[in-house]
Amino acid sequence: MISFNSVCLITRDLPGLRDFYRRVLRVAPEGDETFAVFGTAGAQLTVFIAQGMEQMAPGSTAGAGRGGSVLEFEVEDVDQEHARLLALGVPIVKPPTTQPWGLRSVWFRDPEGNLVNFYAPVDGG
Fold first, then answer.
1. Cα(122)–Cα(70) distance, rounded to whole angstroms?
2. N or C: which end of the chain has fewer CB within 10 A?
3. Chain mean position to CA 11
4. How far lies 54's CA from each of 58, 64, 112, 122, in Å?
5. Within 13 Å and on the Cβ side, how many CA atoms surround 113?
6. Residues in Cβ contact with 123 at an 8 Å cutoff, skipping those fewer than 6 apart
7. Closest CA to 72 of 29, 36, 31, 120
8. Which residues make Cβ contacts (< 8 Å) with residue 88, sequence separation at least 6?
9. Is the distance from CB of 21 to CB of 45 less than 8 angstroms?
C-alpha cells in the first residue's frame, strides 16, 4: 500500500511563504534557507525554494505554475479560525459556509495564490 505523507510547495519567496504558514498553521517550521517543513497531524507541508529545486534537478521547475494547489486542514472551529485569519489580514476567498455533506469550511489564499481550506465536521454531518 502507498502511504501519502507530504506536500511540497515550490516558491521563489521562501521567507514570505514560510512566515505565512507559520502564522496560519501555528506550527514552528524546521529547515534552513532553502526549505521549511511544517509537521501537522496526518501529513507534513514542505515549502522549498525554486533555486534549490533547480540545483537538485535542472529544468525541474520549467513550466511549473504557482498557485494551482488546494491544501485542506481539519480544524476544531472554522468560525474561530475565520476570525483569527481576518485578524492576520489573510485574504478570504469564501467565508465560513456549511456544505450539504456536513462540513463547515473557510477558504483563503496563501501568498503564492494556492487555496487553503480550513474545515470541520458539523454535528450530524
1. 21
2. N
3. 13
4. 5, 12, 18, 43
5. 7
6. none
7. 120
8. 23, 24
9. yes
